[in-house]
């Protein structure tokens, strides 16, 4: 990344980071200014939150979540971290350690929950019982608990570390398949509603490379490695294709996603006119919310397994 | 491509070609049936031409143009070839030789023209005089002369060898940049209008890999090599990204392009309500058509060069 003699676009001092999509080079200090500027712009432009307001941060321990926490904290937001231990093998311990290290460094509280304790089942079992794609079940469950715990801790907003590459990759996938409903709902803010915290993506204007550089500049205690269960996920393909195009034609990804937002109306409030889940009270259009249905099916599946086990014993 | 013991999806004999996007394997004979079936479907579905009608084929000498010529000829269309020698270096001679060999093999006429003789200028000079991107100038000129010569030879339809990868790559580029006007006009048929031949793309449902296999199965006398002036063109990037995604998720490209067509209305007739070019009579919205403007500017540029040369002599 470094190039001897490369000058910072902002202060003309020695630069350490180069971003072809912006045709910019930055030293650590100016990268920080640029980074926070982009976060501030996203927050203001898409009306994510009032200045300095309280915010829960979904902290997986990866670079994106640590970066968004660090930036929002530095910008004066009153933050707390929320870490969900998904119990996904050897990935779990370093992720938790990274979240803890970050909380210590910022002097902010970190709330840690185990998915298995919350749900009463391991994620593996929920997936097996429902015979669905791993990422789809895990994503549903994560969103459900992040929302519920954010509200239970008295916050009305939860920020995630999704960055430009995530959003542009998702947009590309949705466009290639003409997923009209997903396209209509793709937006960096999902508004709050009764029973729903506001979900915001303050890094949506920053590329993965920019977030990586920021994490490096601040020496954030990032957990390495990637999810052991992500095999078979298609989103990374769209992201990789998008990054390749951006490599060949710098700026393509940035323009693609931001132009999409520029041309679009914010989506209607989510689950407007929804009823409440009979089990947990979360807003839903059905009798029970998706999370409760997945868990009820897991319960029944375990019961059947247990009964079959006893039948064999008899 | 071959795999010992691989069976043809259609006849269960030994297969030679494998197409993951269709989850199909074919022997040479069944590939031919499949190929002509897809061409017939494209012609019928997008109302390209009446059965057996006369058609001019734009023959560059590459595999796509030879394949479309071969297939349309075999399907009973009354074809003639049109080859435009663009004078682009060592690429020119083998291209012309391939077109000639194909015409001999089919026993059909081939009309050969030199761009330089038609236009009075070399393509290089037109590009230099107009200070525009090479592919853009060359494309404009090629379309202009293909149209004009098709009509002059008494045909009302010209077929080109554009295939699925060309069209899907172009679509991806247009979508990523939200080129609304190009998106509105992207369609495998451009209707005829006064002064305009109908342009059709009978291979639009067949991937580059399928066309390559067809050319191989028929041992078509394909000209190798690629245009020496295509450097800097962006379309190949979109095609490559698209092909990569299709490699990872077979069928992605096919579904993307055909679903785009399925959801779309055919575009309005081109240049509806247009006037006629003051120089050549081609339909245009301006005083002169784009081709005549490019050539007039080239003329003026050469004149200026000549005058400057004489001024120095004096």
In percent, how helical is the residue content of chain A? Answer: 40-55%
Order of helices and strands of chain A: EEHEHEHEHHHEHHEEHHHEEH
| Main interface by residue count | A-B, 20 and 20 residues
Number of helices, counting only DSSP H or I runs of 4 residues or more of chain A:
12
Structural class given helices, strands, pairing of chain A? alpha/beta
Rg of chain A is: 21 Å
Beta-strand level of the residues of chain A, as a percent range? 5-15%
**What shape does the CA trace of chain A take?**
globular
Largest sheet of chain A: 6 strands, mixed
Number of DSSP strand runs of chain A: 10
Strand order of the largest sheet of chain A: 5-4-3-6-8-7
Uncertain parts of chain A: none
Oligomer: homodimer
What is the terminal separation of chain A in angstroms?
Answer: 67 Å
Mean pLDDT of chain A: 93
What would you note in describing this structure?
The structure is a homodimer of 314-residue chains. In chain A, 49% of the residues lie in helices and 11% in strands. Chain A starts with 16 loop residues before the first strand and ends with a helix. The longest helix of chain A has 24 residues, at 290-313. Chain A has twelve helices and ten strands. Chain A has 314 residues and is of the alpha/beta class. Chain A has a six-stranded mixed sheet, sandwiched between helices. The first copy, chain A, has a two-stranded antiparallel ribbon with strand order 1-2. The interface between A and B is medium-sized, with 20 and 20 residues.
